[in-house]
């Protein structure tokens, strides 16, 4: 999957393989190459999305060689149904099984490749169902939260992380940190026994991070920040009665006592203090501040609850009850 003298037919080509005629091993550090000449680009799979974004951002002309993997997140952008995007001038598609894709697939065991493709297909199907962009890193976090809510094991998150690394660009440090937290929750959490009349909750990203690390400010901030990051994906309605502040502690011996968890949502609670601290560390974007007209504005109790409920809705967590939040 690397360009060299034998497969690059242009004067200049971009390659990570140090061969005669290669313009640069790190092509993204030389933007003048993308604007001045026609390039032959054969990036490895995990750089395909970044290469396409770079080409479009610099209005560059290039011949892009990529494997015929319809499960790769870049395919919906390049080959949408029923029309050709304006930035694609022409394309030539070879039959599946050509030597172009064999070296990459041969680098992993067949069962591993099947597991990666299956996991990626589930992510794409989930994104299509929820009408979100599968190429957006936030969709990966929402999908991960959904699998966490389903009670998936640590191995499931390892496969998801490996498939993303195999097919896509490297994720941002923030997304990578959140994925590692989810995996840590899956590894360390143990299901809490519940009263028979209270449904089992698997919203570990909020509930179990409190029970495992109640004094870990960074972890709590990350969990709350993730919840607040996805409230703008849909225009959702919500029920005040569903999210009232009387949060029941969901343990068998205390379910009937109505004790509140640490995650109270009063105006002077630690939760809102953590949110205020979180806004100072994360870039101010529409993803992180879905509910605020201005990032520095004060967030109200009702708006905080609305964002948490929106997260559950987008992630597909339908049976939300007060004790879960």
Question: Can you put this structure into words, describing what you see?
Answer:
- The chain has helices spanning 31-36, 48-58, 75-78, 102-105, 110-130, 137-149, 154-167, 173-188, 207-212, 217-229, 270-278, 301-314; strands spanning 12-14, 39-41, 62-64.
- The chain is mainly alpha-helical.
- The protein folds into three domains: 12-105, no CATH class; 109-170; 189-324, no CATH class.
- It has a three-stranded parallel sheet with strand order 1-2-3, with helices on one face.
- Helix 1 (31-36) links the parallel strand 1 (12-14) and strand 2.
- The longest helix has 21 residues, at 110-130.
- The radius of gyration is 23 Å and the shape is elongated.
SSE inventory with pairings:
Blueprint: E1 12-14, H1 31-36, E2 39-41, H2 48-58, E3 62-64, H3 75-78, H4 102-105, H5 110-130, H6 137-149, H7 154-167, H8 173-188, H9 207-212, H10 217-229, H11 270-278, H12 301-314
Parallel strand pairs: 1-2, 2-3
Helix pairs in contact: 5-7, 6-8, 7-8, 10-11
């Amino acid at each position: 999957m690397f360009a060299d003298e034998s497969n690059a037919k242009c004067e200049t080509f971009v390659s990570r393989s140090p061969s005669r005629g290669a313009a640069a091993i790190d092509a993204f550090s030389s933007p003048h190459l993308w604007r001045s000449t026609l390039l032959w680009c054969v990036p490895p799979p995990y750089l395909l999305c970044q290469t396409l974004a770079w080409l479009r951002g610099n209005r560059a002309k290039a011949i892009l060689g990529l494997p015929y993997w319809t499960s790769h997140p870049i395919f919906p952008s390049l080959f949408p149904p029923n029309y050709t995007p304006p930035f694609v001038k022409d394309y030539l598609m070879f039959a599946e099984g050509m030597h172009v894709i064999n070296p990459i697939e041969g680098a992993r065991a067949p069962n591993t490749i099947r597991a990666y493709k299956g996991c990626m297909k589930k992510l794409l199907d989930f994104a299509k169902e929820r009408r979100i962009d599968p190429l957006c890193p936030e969709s990966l976090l929402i999908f991960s939260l959904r699998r966490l809510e389903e009670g998936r094991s640590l191995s499931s998150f390892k496969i998801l992380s490996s498939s993303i690394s195999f097919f896509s660009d490297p994720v941002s440090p923030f997304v990578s940190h959140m994925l590692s937290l989810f995996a840590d929750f899956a590894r360390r959490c143990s299901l809490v026994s519940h009263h028979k009349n209270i449904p089992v909750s698997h919203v570990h990203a909020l509930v179990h991070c409190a029970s495992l690390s109640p004094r870990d400010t960074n972890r709590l901030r990350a969990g709350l920040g993730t919840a607040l990051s996805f409230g703008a994906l849909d225009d959702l309605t919500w029920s005040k009665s569903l999210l009232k502040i009387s949060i029941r502690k969901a343990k068998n011996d205390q379910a009937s006592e109505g004790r509140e968890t640490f995650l109270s949502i009063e105006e002077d609670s630690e939760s809102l203090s953590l949110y205020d601290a979180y806004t100072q560390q994360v870039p101010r974007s529409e993803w992180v501040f879905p509910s605020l007209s201005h990032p520095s504005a004060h967030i109200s109790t009702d708006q905080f609850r609305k964002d948490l409920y929106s997260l559950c809705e987008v992630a597909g967590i339908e049976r939300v009850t007060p004790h879960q939040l």
